[in-house]
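User: Before I run my own analysis I want an independent prediction to cross-check against. Here's the chain; please return only the structure tokens and, at the end, one sentence I can use as a sanity check.
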Amino acid sequence: MYSAIVRPGDGPPTLSCPAAWLAEWGLEPGHTVRLEFGRRSTSVTLTVTQLGRRAVASLPPPVQRQLLAPAGVQMGLARQEDGFRLGPVIGILTSLRLRGPAPAPARLGPQASFFAQLCQAGRGRGAVVYVFSPEQIRWASGAVAAVVQRGKGWGRTLFPLPDVVYVRTQTRSSDRRPDVARCLQRLEKAPGIQVLNRKFFDKWELHQALAGHPAASRYLPVTRRYTSSRDVTELLGAYSRVFLKPTGGSLGKGIIRITRMPGAGYEYRISLGSGDRRAMLRNLGAMLRRVRATVGRRRYIVQQGLHLARLGGSTFDIRLLMQKDPHGQWAVSSRVARLAAPDRLATNVALGGRAVGSTRVMRAALRSLAPSSQQVSEAGRVLAAALEERLGHELVEVGIDLGLDRRGRIWLIEANSRPARYWAWPPQPLIQRSVRGVLGFFLYRTGFLSSVKEIRHGETHRVYRHHGHRPTRRSRGAIRRTGAVLRQTHGGG
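Assistant: Structure tokens:
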């Protein structure tokens, strides 16, 4: 990866490169080329430097201010048809209100640590990474009053519009806000800007996309869009249990489970933030009335009720964080099991669940019926690739939640286009690994990581092959904690 640094200069703007670089690119000193930083550019004259193995952009103060390029910061240097680019510039779009003084970390919410690590990792790889919200964009000048990580806090700096927008808006409702929606539309139409992870998934749209895919459809439970009580009664006739899920729900909230109890009626159970609520309803009519009252006018799906494997009385699922490698192929960045809290339907850590090691949990719960780690990972790769193909927009990462039934069959429970990173097993190794994965793909996608040698021997290679590494001290500690959880929930099994 070529690198460059910007320094203030008194003369005309120049880009000084090692002679070997110019020969490799077929360029000669004295040529005038275009130098871009984000969505801003200027003209520079090529010269030869004898200083080390990086280029130096010497810019008079007015030119540097026009380019909005920071001085003294090592950045990547990418060759393009009419010149060069510095960066890349990566903007993390949030829906938080960030106008005014630089925010304290707490104001950035649960994602503050993830954002900070992306900024820090970017500096180590020559990328400029900042956080911004719609009101911080100055559309007329193509600049952003961005929030940047500094030491243990945050500051504010003016940068150009980015090469890549990494959408990390907080909720579906925030995406529907007029200012956020307009901002995303303008960014998508702006030349030279790549907008990635654009939309939250809708459960019904997701099911429709995957149902016609030959490789992905085998992981899908029977699913219908809820339009009337008939959808519930027909699935209950075929299965003794059904689930109703809000199509735009998250964190397991609002999920309803209905179980037909022979001779006793129906058990109705709903997952709420404050806890699950149960009711026994004696007849079908009473149960359907309860469903209609709960669902109201919201959009729900009705799904075959899976009888999932349990450990110590708790259900569990497998959360895969799928990320693109530098070749654009899907790979597993992390894999954990999430054990539901006692008497909870949902396994979400935000609702009291626990994240522990997946392999030992699968073996403890299913013994010889447990699928292999390779089978679980392959399911994640198939589903992530199928989602991107069928939904028609580029993804960087996907959170895939898989369930295992009592025979060890793998099922898709949920997919999330913006997986959270504020739960942990253990916290920092998982977050750091996913940070390197996201950053590595951005470098490749923007043309700043292009050589085969860099991909093979660089940090990004290590990210996507981490399962074969020797355990670190932190991961060994995590394995011990997993063993303690298994002993607690499974009587030492």
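Sanity check: Confidence is low (pLDDT under 50) at residues 451-482, 489-493.
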